[in-house]
Amino acid sequence: MRRVWQRNFDVYRATWKVNFIPPLLEPLLYLFAFGLGLGGFVKSVPYQGLDVTYLRFIAPGLIATAVMNHGFFETTYSSYVRMYFQKTYDAILATPLSLEDVVLGEVAWGMTKAFFAGSIMTGVAVLFGLVSWTTALALVPMLVVGGGVFAGLGMCFTGLVRNIEMFNFPVFLFVTPMFHFSGVFFPLGSLPAWAQKVAWCLPLTPLVSLIRNAALGVSGPEAIWSWVGLSLSCVATIILSLVFMRRRLVR
User: Fold this and answer.
1) Is residue 40 pLDDT above 80, yes or no?
2) What is the per-residue DSSP string for the chain?
3) Spatial contact of 137 and 162, defined as CB atoms under 8 Å apart
4) Rounded CA gap, 104 and 110, in Å?
5) Contact 142, 208 (CB under 8 A)
6) 20 to 30 Å CA-CA from 214: which of 24, 84, 182, 244?
7) What share of the chain has pLDDT > 70, as a percent?
8) Averaged over 125-133, what is the pLDDT?
């Protein structure tokens, strides 16, 4: 597993200048567009008994979104290209490394990319005064576990799709709804009761909740359930990714 991760990291280091720009500019664009633009109309948002500015409200959601996007897309499109077009998996499996090494190495690399993106977004939030440095350090385990959820989830779809164009289905039917309805841009309490229950079934929701509560200094039983749900999702998606990738590659 470590060697597969190292191979991907070595490739990343060769092109890091190009790969570093999107996760750096993405949070800036979101913060300016939604926080400063839309925030000019929405002065404050009630959350857990607090009255916070809209910019402070959405910043934690944007951190979680960065983790989701980079973890998921690294183990879908990028992993599929390595598997199908570059034949990297065939070359690795010709060595003593096992299929489990390949899959877990890919998931670990997806977690790493998600952590990088989430850390950059957190750093931008700190510079804007939206998150403190001590809180930023407390977010590290959340970024790691959240990255594992979406990297594992992406690997599951890589094991299921028949061609690269079919990734449009999970992106449109799963990732996009999570982006809009997991509490990133508005409190879930504004949704109908049934919609709130559906939203809490989405893995992005507990990640947004954990990061936002930590950033705003809010504590309560919701954090415990969010941690439980996120941790179980991480374990489940990684196990399922092993199952689906074995079915795909072992024939």
Assistant:
1) no
2) -HHHHHHHHHHHHHTHHHHHHHHHHHHHHHIIIIIIIGGGT--EEEETTEEEEHHHHHHHHHHHHHHHHHHHHIIIIIHHIIIIIS-HHHHHHTSS--HHHHHHHHHHHHHHHHHHHHHHHHHHHHHTTSS-HHHHHHTHHHHHHHHHHHHHHHHHHHHH-SSGGGGHHHIIIIIHHHHHHSSSSS-GGGS-HHHHHHHHTSTHHHHHHHHHHHHHT--SHHHHHHHHHHHHHHHHHHHHHHHHHHHHH--
3) no
4) 10
5) no
6) 24
7) 97
8) 90
Write out the two tokens for 237.
């998606």
Other beta carbons within 10 angstroms of residue 245's beta carbon come to 25
Q: 251 falls in which pLDDT band (50, 70, 90)?
A: low
CA atoms within 13 A on the CB side of 28: 6
pLDDT higher than 90, residue 12? no
**Crossing angle, helix 221-249 and helix 99-127, to 10 degrees?**
140
Query: What letter represents residue 183's amino acid?
Result: G
- What tokens were used for 160? 């299921």
